[in-house]
Specification:
Layout (H helix, E strand, L loop, with lengths): L3 H11 L8 E3 L1 H7 L4 E3 L10 H10 L3 H6 L1 E4 L3 H12 L4 E5 L5 H9 L3 E4 L4 H15 L2 E2 L6 H17 L5 E5 L4 H13 L4 E5 L6 H5 L1
Parallel strand pairs: 3-4, 3-6, 4-5, 7-8
Antiparallel strand pairs: 1-2
Length: about 210
């Protein structure tokens, strides 16, 4: 579990650069479900996704020397842009490894944020393996998309904001891929109020976390 203090510190670290997004009541979903439904609108975040929270917090916690050497990430989308824009803010060189099949729009979007892009491999796993090795060879810091305490603490700030806006939350439903977002949110929420139910939902076609459990 990520400590609540680490998540609170992450909130302080990212404030001023990462947006505090709206937590908006959804009349349509509330009517359909018979419950009071609120949506955490991370689509309004910088780069359009929550991933920037963890990326920025991780880079902020690197030493000055580590930032000078640069950072590496493997991603075909939101993590790539989160790392790229965060690295640019710290004037840190960033290299993003993407699968060769990545749409050109995503490649150009990442380059526009100041990162160097390397296309490698037929899928994410191959791009990831290359990125880890590349970071070691170049003496650069690898920014993992989810399996890192600073990244998870950054994502956990979503939970802090939700509790700040609506203290009487009963259930939080979180989309899950690698697990960084739900690790951060559940760590935060369960330490503040253990009675809140946290539910992970994965895509039926990519049920890695479900199968793991």
């Amino acid at each position: 579990m990520i400590s609540l203090n680490k998540i609170i510190q992450a909130k302080r670290t990212i404030s001023g650069f990462v947006y505090k997004t709206p937590f908006a009541y959804s009349a349509k979903l509330s009517l359909a479900s018979g419950a009071l439904i609120y949506l955490k609108e991370e689509n309004l975040q910088r780069t359009g996704a929550y991933k920037i929270r963890g990326a920025y917090n991780k880079i902020a916690n690197l030493s000055a020397q580590e930032r000078k050497k640069g950072v590496v990430a493997a991603s075909a989308g939101n993590h790539a842009q989160g790392v790229a824009i965060s690295a640019r803010e710290f004037k840190t060189p960033a290299t993003i490894v993407m699968p060769e099949s990545t749409p050109l729009l995503k490649v150009l979007g990442t380059k526009d944020l100041g990162a160097e892009v390397i296309l490698k491999g037929d899928n994410f796993d191959e791009a990831y393996a290359y990125a880890v090795e590349y970071a070691k060879q170049q003496g650069m810091s690898f920014i993992h998309p989810f399996d890192d305490e600073y990244v998870m603490a950054g994502q956990g700030t979503v939970g802090l904001e939700m509790l700040d806006d609506l203290a009487e939350l009963e259930t939080i439903i979180v989309p899950v891929g690698g697990g960084g977002l739900i690790s951060g949110i559940s760590s935060c929420v369960k330490q503040v109020n253990p009675d809140v139910r946290v539910v992970a939902v994965s895509a039926k076609g990519a049920p890695a976390m479900f199968n793991s459990f």
